[in-house]
Amino acid sequence: MSDPPHASAGPDTAVDEHRLDELIIEAQTALPVELSALANRCASALGLDTVSIYLADLQQRLLIPLDEALKPLPVDRSSAGWAYRTVSPRVADADDGLIVWMPLVDGAERLGVLAVRTARLDGVRMRRSRMLAHLFAMLITSKRAYSDWLAARTRTATMRLPAEMLRAFLPPRTVGSKWCVSTAVVEPAYEIAGDAFDHSVVKNVLHTMILDAMGHDLTAGLTTSVAMAAARNARRGGGDLADVVGSVDQALAQWLPDQFCTGVLCRLDAEVGLLHWVNCGHPPPLLIRGERVLAGALDSPPQPPIGLAGSLAPLPRKVHETALEPGDCVLLYTDGVVEARDADGAEFGLDRFTDFIIRSSAAGQRPAEVLRLLIHAILDYQRNQLRDDVTILLFEWHPQFR
Prior knowledge:
The protein is α+β, with helices and mostly antiparallel strands and 402 residues long. The protein has helices spanning 17-27, 35-45, 79-86, 123-144, 148-153, 161-167, 218-236, 241-255, 350-362, 367-381; strands at 51-56, 62-65, 73-74, 90-94, 97-106, 109-118, 174-176, 180-187, 195-202, 205-213, 261-269, 274-280, 286-289, 292-293, 320-323, 329-333, 390-397.
């Protein structure tokens, strides 16, 4: 919904700027459990009625209210879920007026939704609802890094120790800039152990990585955690892609000499679309262009898994490069995706996997929503009984015209 071009505040929409300033200062030290009450005080200062905050659960099936007296809402069958899925406001009738469902977004990552109740809606109230959503998205992002309560609130099951350790290392599900976006999902959400992903934007360079460690226990989680730490350490020290892979090789060889993992590491110069990648014993990345997979476009000669940097990998890693075209998508995945089987033993398969992504993207779904739908389709295919960890990372190059 767009704002009227010349909407202006009337007497009933006056803002107490002094009170609003006090509330914003209070927000800096507010506990996460106090955010619901704080949101309502901010709404009152803005001439709105009441506000409720809902955050997506780990599997993005439910929107869970921070107010423990309220009930969760389904992502797939509610006005709140529509706002979350499309990252667009949704206005719905309520018994005592209207509810504006505002998406809560941090950069490119969807956090949840804000329910703003108001007796009537105009351009001024719409803008203030949006402003409130932006404010609380930033507050939630800043506070969830240290809040056990927020972490627990978005869980619907007990998390196993390997998953707890690994999730402490995982970045946000989605990152991006005006040049590109990268998004990822992992399952089983509460039992993940050997799979992991990483992505980061440094200036106009997107770094992505997917890992699959040997085993499915705490040691497997430790392996991928060490690998991610080593990769980040090399990146933050200014190393290029070959340095990053070499650093991970050395870290695993030194600290976990009996462990290894397969993986793909990528570096995309998002200003010009130049992609560099290294494949270490992993399924090759897939390049999707113009609603089709370019077969073999990102295939490369085999290299040993990460951590086998001794006799099996005596030479430096080979870095490959290719030029992307605007709108290209690159897909990284672990083998648990295509090896998922139904009750009759039939594999989900690579064709079904890529066809789902192409059809969903062609229907106008955002990358994060494409992967949310895909991971649920894989879970449903296997009746929520995954035989292996499943991790999918999709990044898209979409340079804006200048």
